[in-house]
Write a structure and sequence with these properties.
This protein is mostly beta strands. It has 2 helices and 37 strands. The strands form 3 sheets. It has a 22-stranded parallel beta sheet that branches. It has a 13-stranded parallel beta sheet with strand order 4-6-8-11-14-17-20-23-26-28-30-32-34. It has a two-stranded antiparallel sheet with strand order 36-37. Strand 1, helix 2 and strand 2 form a beta-alpha-beta unit. The longest helix is centred in the first third of the chain and has 21 residues.
Amino acid sequence: MAKYQISPAPAWLSALLALLMLAILVPAAQALPSIAEGSLASITVSASGNDGNYRSIQEAIDAAAPGSRIDVGSGIYFENLIVDRRVSLFGSGSTVIDGQQKGSAVTITADGVLVEGFAIRNSSLSTAALREPGGIRLQSNDNTIRNNTITDNWNGIVLISSHENIICNNSLAGGQEAIDLRSSHNNTICHNRIVNAEDGILLQDSRYNSMSSNTILDCSDDGLICINGSHNIIEGNKALRSGWHGLELFFSDNNTMINNEASGCKVCNIFIVGSDTNRISGNLALSCEMCGIWCMRSRHNLISGNAASRNNYSGIRLDESEGNTVAFNEACSNRVAGIEALSSNGNSFYGNNLTGNLLYPAYDDGENRWGDPERPNRYSDFDEPSEGCFAKHQSGICDQIYLIEGSKNTDSYPGAK
């Protein structure tokens, strides 16, 4: 039988066929809708049912494709939402979600959810079956919660093992913890206003979070407390008139607490207990009923550049603490002392202004280092010869050694006027 051999097509014919295929396929591909670039239609919810796709927010969530926007009209929605897909929920500003005392009002289990413009209220109490419910409870990552009003809940916003979220510009009132982070890392908590909670912000077993520019007023316990946390940044917050402490580090290491105002609190404005290697700098700790800054059983902290004045007891107090550096603070006009060191050893004190305290500038019953020739402490204005400071040998340094109250500690370089 004869065999047929098919010769390959000429090169010019192959090139022509390829051009024809491109001419057909490219326009067709361009005509197809792009999922990445296209936008999903907005879903609307109306409490009256007259001008929306749904009357229930949960129904809208259940029907939504990932990435959908859900606009919720004004009205009161008695629901306990489960947000289990990536959606953006927008309230009108007068949209209320009422949790009916049946658990959290909003529980978010999906990543990448946005909640904005709602009033959220009336979550249930914590029970054995449901620990730590909240107005909003986050159990996922990369969510944004902003511009909401959250009131009358067991907790306001709760994060449970929830990371890289943004919680900003919300107003929260009442409850146990207004914002509660548990084993949650790399979150941003900023520009929130919190009033009349038990604790304003609680971090527990949480790391690398940023707490900035929050206003925390009239909490019955603490304004902001960090328990067993590390590498958190607490910056530019106001914690005023707390029943116990304004800002507290409790067995928490390697945190940064800078440029905050913690004033008018009952026990102390800034409390550091069992906490090591933290930086406490540039804070205002004024007008507390006891101490401005109180460091207890803590080591190797830097306490610098703070204003701890006009407190009813001491400006800065150390109890059973070692190896801390207390420098360049304004601890003035306190009723007892500028700085007290009780049962504390190996600490360094230099560059502090300790003038105008009622009982004594400094008190120390341990073994610590006071003063530095380049960075002297100021114990008095030394504006009278009778105060015994003459700076003949070194400008700005008294020739006489200054005796620290409470022990045999002395400062060889007390600052002159």
